[in-house]
Each structure stands twice: as structure tokens, then as C-alpha cells.
Amino acid sequence: xxxxxxxxxxxxxxxxxxxxxxxxxxxxxxxxxxxxxxxxxxxxxxxxxxxxxxxxxxxxxxxxxxxxxxxxxxxxxxxxxxxxxxxxxxxxxxxxxxxxxxxxxxxxxxxxxxxxxxxxxxxxxxxxxxxxxxxxxxxxxxxxxxxxxxxxxxxxxxxxxxxxxxxxxxxxxxxxxxxxxxxxxxxxxxxxxxxxxxxxxxxxxxxxxxxxxxxxxxxxxxxxxxxxxxxxxxxxxxxxxxxxxxxxxxxxxxxxxxxxxxxxxxxxxxxxxxxxxxxxxxxxxxxxxxxxxxxxxxxxxx
Length: 302
Known about the structure:
Elements: H1 43-68, H2 77-90, H3 96-104, E1 108-116, E2 123-135, E3 139-143, H4 144-147, E4 152-156, E5 162-171, E6 176-181, E7 204-209, E8 217-231, E9 238-245, E10 257-260, E11 265-272, E12 285-289, H5 290-296
Antiparallel strand pairs: 1-2, 1-4, 2-3, 3-6, 4-5, 5-6, 7-8, 7-10, 8-9, 9-12, 10-11, 11-12
């Protein structure tokens, strides 16, 4: 029976010619290979170390910066005054008269009275004056002489809206009439009225209206006197307790507001004094105090 071949893990050696096995080879011992020691820090460790060093350096720099920074200087009154003056030089504020006009303008209306012409065929313009809205539902104060005898009345609001108006009340002794407009603007603004109790000569005032139909026009002046009396040129009517003012007023200003520099109504312009027949302004105008005017509209006094 054949036996399978066996293989040795060592290299085979042939017998010498004499049949004797060769002597085993002598292997010289080898020196051990030195193993390098493992590094104490990895590359990531060095990056972490530099990050810590950079953070410490940043904190040190911030600390030095804060320690060297000076506390902000406290503002003085001189600094504030200089800033205000600089602002006024570069952006001047509107004048008191301009602010007063802007405040009263939305409440001022043009009032026109119409009547038949000579042959009675059509309505023609018979009078032009001014009115001021005192209640935002369209209640308007004006002079009685502006609308007296008119067959129809039309008012024009500041936004251009035109409306018919009717007389709802009169105060003959103060030449006042109260109108109600049939249509009013959606954003109707009524004037603010102010008591004349603390009004004094020298106070600044403004008259706003439609002199000779031109307007709205504004003219500024001062209160010249209080509790004045005026008689109409025809001598038919005597008006008392009037405000005298020197802001320019002419025919067409009648019924318009006399306002303070806050835009608040203190009177209704009623007449001008002129010894000539030219009906032009010579520096003396008169207004009915707003207390009387408001009572004509059934409003309580201040």
C-alpha cells in the first residue's frame, strides 16, 4: 500500500554522495531591532495647544485695551447748545406764522353768496368772504354781511370740494352767521378755538382769508387793543367788545379766523377801519371775540 508523500516545512537537503546526511548549518544569532518610542503629543495635541495660546493672547490684548480706554466725556450744557445751534444753521425751523397757517388752513373755507342778475334770469356772484369750520360735521362761522340777502350760498373747502350751504343761525349784534354745509370732506378738520381771557396787546396773531377773492391768504401782525367799538360806514350798526389788530385785512377777509401763533382761533374778522372810500386796509382791523362767535353757534363759552 502506497503511503502519501509527506512534506516537511523546512527546506529539503540532499544526501552527499556517500549517503550520509550533511551536518546541520550553524545560524548566527541576530541583534534585536530597536523599537522607536511612541511620541508624547499627536499633531492634534499641538493644534489644541496653539489654540489655547492664541486665546490667552487675545484675552490679554482685550484686557490691556479696556484698561487703557478712557471713560466717555460727560456732555455739558455748552455741548448741547452748540449742537442745537448747528442744527438750526443747517435745518432752520419754520416760522411761528408758517406753523399757525399750516394748523388753520384745513379749516378755512371760501364763502360765496349768489343772487339773481338785473334781469332776474340767472344767479351771479354777489359777495365773497371767508368762513371757518368750528365743528367737523360742517358747521361754519362767517359774517352775516357776507351771506345776507343771498339766494344761494356755496362754500369751497381746503381740498377743493364745493358744497351748497344754508344759514342755520344768526347773531345780528355781532354780524355773525352760522352755516351748515351739505357735503363735507372725508377728513374734515375743525379749527381749535381759544379763549381771549389772556389775550393782550402785542400778542402775535394772523388773519387768514380770501381778500378780494384771492386765497387762502395769510397776513401776520399783533393785537393792537381790546374792547374796541366800531360803527359801520353807513352808521347803521355799532359793534362793541372787538379785538383790534394790525394784520392786513381787506374785503373778502370778512368771516375769516383771527388766530394765535398756535393756530387757535381767538376771533372772527369782521371789519376794517378806513376813513376813505377806497375800502383798503390802513392798519386797523376788528374781530369779534370767539366767545361771542361760538355762542352764535349754540356752543358753550370757555
